């Protein structure tokens, strides 16, 4: 084990840890299952890299563990990207559209509640001209 190899393994671990942090911050933009699988993949890769820093002999248990965890890491990537995209392609493609639709429904329900419970007159004004276009009195 050279110093360069050990330093490289630690650097890769730090990069993966930073990637996990960034993915976690953007988790609302992706499917929850995909995020879980990608984080699990990065976690397995980090432990694999750290295991690679511990072995002295190529046939030692830490080396074997590192390779097995690398395989597990790639399996999680497979599940996250390939299997999810093939099994539920429309969920992946139209996720943003579905979220926008749900947001619009909530907004409409809040507006309807405010409108129906208002005791005063409600004025609608044109956004461009500022002219009042209609008045509703309850």
Short description:
This protein has 138 residues and is mainly α. It has helices at residues 3-25, 32-52, 61-87, 89-93, 95-117, and strands spanning 122-125, 132-136. The chain contains 5 helices and 2 strands.
Rounded to the nearest angstrom, the distance between the terminal CA atoms is 81 Å
Give average pLDDT, whole number. Answer: 86
Structural class by helix and strand composition:
mainly alpha
The biggest beta sheet is recorded as: 2 strands, antiparallel
State the domain count: 1
Secondary structure layout plus pairing:
Blueprint: H1 3-25, H2 32-52, H3 61-87, H4 89-93, H5 95-117, E1 122-125, E2 132-136
Antiparallel strand pairs: 1-2
Helix pairs in contact: 1-2, 2-3
């Amino acid at each position: 084990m050279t110093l360069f190899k050990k330093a490289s393994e630690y650097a890769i671990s730090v990069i993966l840890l930073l990637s996990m942090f960034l993915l976690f911050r953007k988790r609302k933009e992706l499917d929850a299952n995909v995020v879980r699988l990608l984080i699990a993949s990065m976690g397995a890769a980090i432990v694999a890299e750290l295991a690679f820093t511990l072995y002295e002999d190529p046939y030692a248990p830490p080396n074997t563990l590192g390779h097995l965890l690398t395989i597990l890491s790639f399996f999680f990537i497979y599940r996250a990207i390939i299997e999810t995209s093939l099994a539920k392609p429309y969920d992946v493609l139209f996720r943003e559209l579905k979220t926008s639709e749900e947001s619009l429904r909530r907004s409409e329900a809040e507006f309807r509640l405010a409108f129906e419970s208002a005791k005063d007159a409600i004025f609608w004004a044109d956004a461009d001209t500022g002219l009042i276009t209609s008045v509703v009195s309850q």
